[in-house]
Amino acid sequence: MRTSFFIILFGIFTFALVAFKQQLTSTSIDFIIPKKWPKPVYTFENNPLTEEGFQLGRKLFYDPILSRDSTISCASCHLQYTGFTHVDHTVSHGIYGRKGTRNSPALINLAWNKSFHWDGGVNHIEVQGINPIQHVAEMDNTLEEVIRSLQRSTSYPAQFEKVFGKKEITTSDIMKALTQYTASLVSSNSKYDQVMRKDKGVAFTSQEKNGLKLFQQHCTACHTEPLFTNTFFASNGLKMDSLLKDTGRYGITYQGKDSMQFKIPTLRNIEFTFPYMHDGRYKKLKDVINYYSDGIDPGNRYLHNSLQKPLNFTEIQKKDILSFLLTLTDKTFLYNIRFSFPR
Amino acid sequence: MKLILLFFLLLPVQFFAQTITFVPLFNGEKVNLSTKIGQLDNWIEFDDFRFYISHLSIYSSSKVWKDDVKAHLIDLESTESLTITIPSAKIDSISFNIGIDSLTNASGILDGDLDPINGMYWAWNSGYINFKLQGKSSLSTNIDQSFEFHLGGYLSPFNTIQSVCFPIKNHEQNIEIEIELNQFIQQTELWKVNSIMIPGKEAVRLSETLPTIFTIK
User: Fold this and answer.
1) Residue A148 is part of which domain span?
2) Does A124 contact B106 at a Cβ distance shorter than 8 Å?
3) Is B136 contained in some domain?
4) For testing the chain B interface, which of A172, A174, A175, A257 should be mutated: the one with the most B CBs within 10 Å?
5) Between the CA of residue A112 and those of A86, A108, A117, A181, B161, what are the distances in Å?
6) What pLDDT, in 10s, does the model give residues B122-143?
7) Alpha-carbon distance B54 to B72, whole Å?
8) Which of A334, B28, B137, B198 could serve as a FRET partner for A242 with CA atoms 20 to 30 Å apart?
9) Where among A163, A187, A211 does a domain terminate?
10) Contact B78, B7 (CB under 8 A)
11) Which residues contact B78 (CB under 8 A, 6 or more apart)?
12) CB of A87 closer than 8 Å to CB of A274
């Protein structure tokens, strides 16, 4: 009798303990690497991916609380429907309409990137978010002020505590939460992916097939499959904008060999990430193809090896390449409600 | 009984701890922030002085004690930051780095003394500022007579971290490390260069002078 009483008591106690613990700890989730893809650079090693952490990062991403006058959020310049870039703006603008000097990059498959920004100045995804918060032409805020605002809010402190297990919010908590969201923005379900996976009923048209062939011949040295970037830097021969005077990677390494080199962007969802190039000088994809085909000055001393011989595509070839590039559109990514504004 | 217990509890703190204290000087005089040093036409004033110490090691006969704290931010504005507590030992020599190593510089977001909120981090060109000295001087050619030196950078060939090693004569005493700022100011040639805010050649040249301004009597 007495023993059974203790057994029952023990049972209740254990149940309560488990239930209590469940409430305190967050739910871990797996980061899924698409089949046959390389290993990601970011592995959530010191930042275990959890549902609560992801949702907190998502909330921060869409919250103007990060900017000095609470007018803009990350999403102001990184809209999901356009591959998380600032559509229609050559260069992006921040608070009070202040203009930056570069075209906001698409946020796609960031976990596979070794560096960030057009000049690769940021060496780790976790520290990227400090830039837009502090930049005068972006959110023009301070880390101190962001922490104060979050700590004062009615909802954030409890959410942070649930994810990071402590009352006080620090820079690293904010950056890690944001990273849980941004590193999770994986696009791997375009028509191209479906064809490569041999999904039933999906096939390239003959035009797309010709386009892929030309693409693999001339473009994959830099826009390497399956990420459609080799994540390195190169000069595609674009002349320096006389007003912006952007020297690219040189501004980070101060070495002549890096002059006019910019980070090679992914081409995934390229249909929607216009305008194109680091300064957004081309509005249409066909302008970009025309530039690579006939517009490059072969005398440009910074030019990447693969572009030194003019490509001179025929009009049909240009159309083929364009139709292939459109197969990199991934609507399940662009319209994934898990990535959209949290309601 | 209780007293004896208390004695043993306090023992580690009382007897098994030694300290290393950094003492910034200008021509041998202790430096206070925002205080003019010198005369009417030849003066200098420091408003901000901080730097990182990392990989602190203490050598005593055959033993080596390695600091498990990644880095210490030494900030003249905060008196307690000037002193580091180490385990008590008969110290033969100590070594440390002035600045942050490349591995730590590329390790993502970090906490405590390495939190970017401390104003010792470049976000646009990821990496820590190893050594920061700001102020005003009659030697500066700036309109407001200001000068600012932010020394950092970890990418080859502009790696700025420096390592120093000191033999210790008074083995069992607290250690005082003097930092002669005038020696640094002379090296900067303030009348020519009054601002360094990026990694590069100049940052490397000035960083290489840092080990010479740290001394132990």
Assistant:
1) 51-187
2) yes
3) yes
4) A172
5) 21, 9, 14, 14, 29
6) 999 999 999 999 999 999 999 9
7) 6
8) B198
9) A187
10) no
11) none
12) yes
Q: Please tell me what DSSP assigns to residue A291.
A: I
The residue count of chain B comes to 217
Say if the Cβ atoms of B200 and A134 lie within 8 Å.
Answer: no
* pTM for the predicted model, two decimal places: 0.91
% of chain B beyond a pLDDT of 90: 82
The angle, 0 to 180 degrees and rounded to 10, between the axes of the packed helices A143-152 and A171-182 is 80
The structural domain count of chain A equals 2
Is A121 in contact with B107 (Cβ distance < 8 A)?
A: no
Q: Is B108 on the interface with A (CB under 8 A)?
A: yes
Residue A3 lies in a domain: no
Any idea what the CATH number is for the domain that residue A273 is in?
1.10.760.10
Answer whether residue A338 is part of any domain.
Answer: no
Position A11 scores a pLDDT of 61
Residue A179 sits in the same domain as residue A213? no
Distances (CA, A) of A72 to A66, A78, A154, B185: 8, 11, 20, 43
Q: Which tens digits make up the pLDDT trace of A40-55?
A: 999 999 999 999 999 9
Can you list the residues of chain A whose pLDDT is less than 50? 22
* A10-26 pLDDT, tens digit each: 666 665 555 555 455 78
Domain-terminating residue out of A155, A187, A219: A187
Q: With CA atoms as reference, report the closest residue to A56 among A46, A67, A66.
A: A66
A96 and A154 belong to one structural domain: yes
Q: What domain range includes position B119?
A: 23-216
Q: For residue A325, what are the contacts with CB-CB under 8 A and spacing of at least 6?
A: A211, A215, A267, A270, A271, A285
Are B123 and A124 within 8 A, CB to CB? no
Helical H segments across B29-171, by residue range: 102-105
Whether residue B13 lies inside any domain: the answer is: no
> In this structure, what token pair is assigned to residue B137?
């001087």
A170 with A293, same domain? no
**Pick from B3, B19, B22: nearest CA to B11:** B3
Residue A256 lies in a domain: yes
Residue B108: the pLDDT is 97
The answer as to whether B6 is a domain residue is: no
Q: Is the pLDDT of residue B12 over 50?
A: no
